[in-house]
Design a protein that fits this description.
74% helix, 2 domains, mainly alpha
Length: 267
């Protein structure tokens, strides 16, 4: 428990620093973080049998994030035309491998990018949704994501009875799930008093999206790990598991929240 607390403390400090130290630190940090998450994913996939090309996947993941990040700084959409060529290399490199299931490898290579890189590109893009870098939005996202996880855990531990999805996550309960939503809504209302870019109702909506889709992302990652019989995605965070274990809440919530922010910002 002590090790978990120490790791959690430094993890929070690093995460806050990544958002508060400016746009270049923000971009570089989440580029590296997304690549580490992709590496974890590929390692888990290899344990289950398929053999996606590690270096091709990581290289494509690097360029996918970089292209979308560059669009945040230099909006033009021209760089996006590079992506089909890059992603096509995944098919080409498989021609030179003596694999009995080439399209399985290709599918998992694409899935790795979709599962790890794409959510981080949406999270990164949130900070630029208004045109210029604004740390309020990614910081608020992280705070609400942590509020949901903490609230669900505390309420579930205190009064959880009815299982939410026992097949994939036996410890999650409906009581904890609802508690997480309520606590996240409270944090959203508090944030709306200090960050006035959006009305309070929009902050509450964002909190609801994070609670609902963050929990779904957690369940999806649990389903993935159970399918290959592993408990944690890695061991880089002592007492907490791997990076994917800490960021599974972003899997669905980051794209949904970005889409919502884009719509209300450009309405």
């Amino acid at each position: 428990m002590r090790l978990r607390a120490i790791t959690g403390f430094f993890f929070i400090i690093v995460m806050l620093g990544s958002v508060l130290l400016g746009s270049m630190v923000f971009t570089a940090f989440y580029l590296v973080l997304s690549i580490f998450c992709l590496q974890e994913f590929n390692r888990l996939v290899k344990q289950s049998g398929p053999d996606p090309n590690l270096y091709t996947g990581l290289l494509n993941g690097f360029f996918v994030f970089t292209v979308f990040a560059a669009e945040c700084y230099f909006p033009s959409n021209k760089l996006l035309f590079i992506l089909p060529v890059l992603l096509g290399s995944i098919f080409v490199q498989e021609l030179y491998k003596k694999s009995e299931a080439p399209f399985t490898n290709i599918a998992f290579c694409f899935l790795g990018i979709l599962f790890t890189i794409i959510p981080f590109t949406f999270f990164h893009s949130m900070a630029f949704v208004g045109g210029e870098f604004n740390f309020h939005i990614p910081l608020s996202f992280l705070l609400m994501l942590w509020a949901n996880d903490t609230g669900a855990y505390l309420v579930g531990s205190w009064m959880g009875r009815v299982k939410l999805f026992p097949r994939h996550s036996p410890k999650k309960t409906w009581e904890g799930y609802i508690g997480g939503i309520i606590i996240t809504a409270g944090v959203a209302l508090l944030l709306s008093r200090y960050y006035t870019e959006y009305e309070w109702k929009h902050w509450v909506a964002i909190g609801a999206f994070i609670s609902v889709f963050g929990t779904m992302g957690d369940l999806i990652e649990s389903m993935f790990k159970r399918s290959i019989n592993v408990k944690d995605s890695g061991g880089i965070l002592p007492g907490h598991g791997g990076l994917l274990d800490r960021f599974d809440g972003m899997l669905l919530s980051a794209p949904i929240v970005y889409a919502y922010l884009y719509l209300i910002t450009n309405a």
